[in-house]
Amino acid sequence: MVPRHRSDLSSSRIARGPRPWTLVPGLGESAGTFDAAPVLDEIPSVDGLVIWQSLRDIDLWSLSDHAGTSFFAPESLSTRHALLASLHDEVLKECLQALAKVLDASRPHSAEIAANCQRLAEWAHTRGFQRTAFSAALRAVSADPVCPAHAYRAGLFACRTADYIRAELWFKRTLSLGRDGRDPHSYALALLGLAVMHIQRYEGDAARLMLRATLRVARRYSVWEVKGRAYHNLFCIESTDGSIRTAVEYAQSALRAYGNYHPELVHFAHDVALFLGTHSDPLRVLPLLRAIADQLTGANKMLATSTVARIAGAANRRLDFLSAWQSTWQLLDCAPSYHRGAAALVHLARGAEMLGDPERVTVAAMEALRIAQQREEHQEVEEAKEMLGLRPRVAGPFPHPHPVSREVHEAAVALTDELLDAIVQIPALRGSLLPHP
Length: 437
What we know:
The chain is mainly alpha-helical and 437 residues long. The chain is 68% helix and 0% strand. The termini are far apart. The protein has helices spanning 6-11, 37-40, 46-63, 76-84, 90-99, 110-126, 130-143, 148-160, 164-178, 184-200, 204-221, 224-240, 244-258, 265-279, 282-295, 298-314, 318-333, 341-355, 358-375, 378-387, 406-414, 416-423.
């Protein structure tokens, strides 16, 4: 029978079930190969060998059945403890001793193994061993495959190793596992990770969409920690495409969202100082950047030191530039994965360019181009090519559809003093800026 009225039509509709959702598979190392290269290439020592053995044991443990059957000989646990006793790093020893429980015949709790794998990944990350960190994060996923937080960290460490195909798949898997409020924190972090990948690919509009989606999730589920980072990344996008007033507004929103004690606040202060140093008085920003560099370590310290060189070049302070130039190269030599290396070298080249030193511009830009092409960091590739004369100069990596008028530009620059006053109140950086003239 054909319904004659709207009410009849609505009553004749068939009730639909929930919309199907495909769980995105993660992409890790080849199963069953137990490849030692990711670990031993970075840590060619007894420490690296024991780490690889522990990760291999987790692979075997995850392949065993759940009936208590073990792949390991009864004396394996005592042999491993004897080997662990020779390690000197106490944090590493504690992590590997906890992971050695998989050698016991009784099956340990999956969540416990996954948590210790994440501790090992964090240990490797803090020491610059990014491929080892990614390998450990993958074992955490194999131990607890339905946990969105473990999938997100696998994507995060894959991104740090410049393995962007795997990173994107792991972030999307996190969205699949954490949807419908199951884990809004990991869900929002995965959106944030995808946005950062769009920024690296020069896809400004796609990055903005992801960041606005992150803000919606943060407001809906009260994930306030992610809210500050979303505004922070929106500020970074706007500060590179000439939309200065919007950039300042996003920076003020990020500052309010972060508060005074957020762990990302020092990194945010670095990005704001770079912005103010290129749009305001660089002499006032130099002390802030030095204070930031002193509080950071590893690749982050290298990036902050290179920013000191760039702003010193803008302020025509050659001695400060040369000191930061030398320190940045020394820190780069200690970064085995070149994480943030291309961005640091771009800052060095920009500072040399403003000082009128073409030889240093060529040296830094050539090395930045090599590392950026190796790591597929498109923004640094384009900037390095621009400074080497391989492509024409443009206003910024994210062309804005509406050009900024002179009046809007001047009004936005006038807001920088207010933003500078807010930054100087950060407890860790208080007193690092010069007073107002």
